[in-house]
Amino acid sequence: MIIERLDGHDRSTFDCGVPELNDWLRTQAAQQQKRGNSATFVGADSEDGRVVGYYSSLAYRLDLDEVATAYGAGKRRYPMPAVLLARLAVCVSYRGKRAGEALLVHALSGAVDVADNVGVEVLVVHAIDKDAAAFYGRYGFTQFADHELHLFMPMKAIRSLVR
Ligand SMILES: CC(C)(COP(=O)(O)OP(=O)(O)OC[C@H]1O[C@@H](n2cnc3c(N)ncnc32)[C@H](O)[C@@H]1OP(=O)(O)O)[C@@H](O)C(=O)NCCC(=O)NCCS
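A: This is the predicted complex of the input protein with coenzyme A.
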């Protein structure tokens, strides 16, 4: 699998089993990327080039109340700059080949590159369901105290994971 920025890839047959995540890739991802609203990277099969996975991320921030619930209060006066990994999915036919892991590591490495140039303290993921949250949990993400499908990992921990 080759991971590259979405750019005219054929994604018409992409099926991860979650209609919302299929539709996003097929109809929204390119448009939103053009607008600068989110960036999408796809995993393309090395042999036939078909899209077998993708992730989309964007700049984000945690407001003070969210920081308090995620990190357990503190005396912060400013919101926390973040990267949001909003979507990540792998084709049903391609599951179990570590494509999900490769896409996640690529997303984390990209976030570290961003954080080298722009302040970012944390990466947040919005999981589509409990299964997805369990997938992120394997890599050390922590659930928000008030939202079991929202998880985070400090950039410090991500740096030591991917560098
Ligand atoms: C979650 C998903 C991305 C995993 O993709 P995948 O390519 O099959 O996963 P990988 O082969 O990279 O698995 C890596 C590890 O995670 C584990 N894993 C995979 N899916 C998991 C899940 N739902 N819960 C817990 N662990 C999971 C694998 O068993 C493997 O563990 P191992 O190191 O013990 O072998 C994929 O199942 C998917 O697209 N699901 C539907 C959409 C979704 O849930 N997206 C997530 C965020 S919105």
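The beta strands are 2-5, 39-44, 51-62, 80-90, 122-126, 142-144, 147-154. The first helix runs from residue 19 to 35.
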